[in-house]
Amino acid sequence: MRKELPVALGFLAGALVIITNFFTSPLLAKVKGEFDQWYLITIAFICGVGLLNLVVLHGNKISRKKEGWGYSYVMFFGIVFFLVFGLWRNSSSDKWFQWLYDTTISPMNATMYSILVFYIASAAYRAFRIRTKEASVLLISGVVMMLGRVSVGAMIHPSIPVLAQWILDWPNTAGMRGIAIGAALGGIATALRVMTGIERGHLGGAE
Fold this sequence. Notes:
It is a single chain. This protein has 207 residues and is mostly helical. The protein folds into 2 domains: 1-90, no CATH class; 128-197, no CATH class. It is 82% helix and 0% strand. It has 8 helices and no strands. The relative contact order is 0.06.
């Protein structure tokens, strides 16, 4: 009963969500509204659990003086500051909260992704060594894309940016759609396995 009840509740919830998204009626609309509210509550609870996990993890790091423990104080300061400031302004659309976000989070995100570019370039250099025809195509496409997205490419030849845009619009879009379709099918298969009780890893046991 300890595992059968969660499986039954999961199947019932999943079936109701599917039904309310494919059929319409006043009753189903009300049920969908309730599920949407519970979804938001669950997301908030998950964020709370994640915050608690961060506090415990970095608290242990500080207490044991592990490498980089000073950055944990910065993390704690950021959490407390943004939490207090957000509760004080009482709105994520507040102009001062938006200013704080634009002057801290956005620049840090840009910095992180800028640093990642160098690691990606290093990995690409090792991966793009021409050993096969496929690797040759990948190398040529990568070089064209890198040159086509900066002004140097147009200075070398005007057709390079056009070719880069073509690669982005056609082969890249086709590949991304294939990945999205595959991920969607995988998500549907996983959801069906959970709903039917085949997948029971989330219950703390084996399948």
